[in-house]
Structures are given as C-alpha cells and as structure tokens.
Amino acid sequence: MSGDPTIAGLLPASWPWTLLGAVIYPVWLAAGVADVLVHRRDRIEVHTGTHESWMHVAMCIQMGIPVLLVLFLDVTVPVFLIATAAVVVHGWTSWRDARFADRVRHIGPLEQKVHVALDAVPWLGLLLLALLHAPALRGLVGAGAADWSWRWRDPPVPTAAIVAVVVSAFAFGLMPSVLELRRAYRTVRAL
Asked: Which helix or strand (DSSP H or E) is residue 170 part of?
C-alpha cells in the first residue's frame, strides 16, 4: 500500500471512492425512493398537482449532470465548478420545492428527515471530490496552478461501475420521479 496515492499524505485515496460508491450513493438513492414513497402515501398530487413533481424531476436532472461528468471526465476545475453549480442549483430547487409544498400540504417528520439526507448528500459528495482532486483544484484557493483542462478519465471508470451507477440512478432516481409526475398528470386530468 505504500505506493498508493494518498490524500494529504494520510489516507489511501481509495477510501473516498469507496465511501461515495458503497455508502453515500446508495443512501442517496434510498432516500430518494423513500421520498417518493412518502409522496405516494400522502398523495401529493392531490394537493400540488404537477408542480411539485416537476421540481423532483428537475432535481434528478440537476444531480445527474455532475454524476455523469465525474464518471467520464477527470475532475478538473471546470468539471468541479459545474458540479458545484449543480449542487447549489439543486439546493435552491429543493428549498423552493419545500417552500411551495409547505404552503399547500403537511410535510411530516419522516419526509423532513428524508429531505435532510437528500439535501446533505450532494454537498458531502462534492467535499469528497474536492479531497480526491485537491491538486487539480488548489489554484482555486490561490495555492498553485489550477487545472482548467477538459479530458476523458484515464484510466476510465470500469464499464461495470458506469452501468451500475447509470442503471441505479435511472431505476431508483429518475424513474420514480417520472412515475410520480405521471401519477400527478393523471390526477389533474381526473379532477
């Protein structure tokens, strides 16, 4: 292990990837599924029509962008800044979503706790990316030259990992939100 890259010379560089892939990402997907199940139980479509469901689809897309970038590109300054912007926009959309929903329906304690996970996980992922790619990002804080290049990952993320991330994101992230939106459209049409 002495030849493994390290973070700040202390920890093997693989631990953040393990934390991201084996803990944070599955917890994030599980929180998303839990949120959709709570919405289904509470029949949000009756109270908010399609508005809230559209925000949920938007948040899936907002977070899908940095996930895809990190899967295929080296994390350099432009990739990190796009990921940061996506996390900020996701946070703003989440705030708008909760603000809107709070006006028209009850948001119970379980849903509030699920939202904590959905809001915190992207920031934690961004922090881990910054730790993993600190040398390329140091110039952003004035400690050296920043890497502003765009390049494919070398070596690339294994195909099996890409398939696992994309399929799980679709199945447990985007698809439940799209089905929630579909249910909302059906309810609006029936009213």
From this structure: none
CA angle 112, 115, 119 (to 5 degrees): 145
Residues in CB range of 78: below 8 A, 6 or more apart: 148, 150
Q: Binning pLDDT at 50, 70 and 90, where does residue 13 land?
A: low
Within 10 A of 57 (CB to CB), how many other CB atoms are there? 15
Q: pTM for the whole thing?
A: 0.87
At 104, list the tokens. 């028209």
| Contact status, residue 28 vs residue 121, Cβ threshold 8 Å | yes
Rounded CA gap, 175 and 171, in Å? 5
CB atoms within 10 A of CB 10: 6
Contacts with 61 (C-beta within 8 Å, 6 or more apart), sequence order:
174
Q: Which helix (H) or strand (E) holds 7?
A: strand 6-7
Query: Which DSSP helix (H) or strand (E) runs through 133?
Result: none
Q: Which amino acid is at 64?
A: G
Distances (CA, A) of 35 to 46, 85, 87, 110, 149: 16, 23, 19, 9, 38
pLDDT tens sequence across 63-89: 999 999 999 999 999 999 999 999 999
The residue written with tokens 């996930």 in the block is 67
Judged by DSSP in three states, 152 sits in strand
Neighbours of 20 (CB within 10 A): 18
Q: How many CB atoms lie within 10 A of CB 184?
A: 23
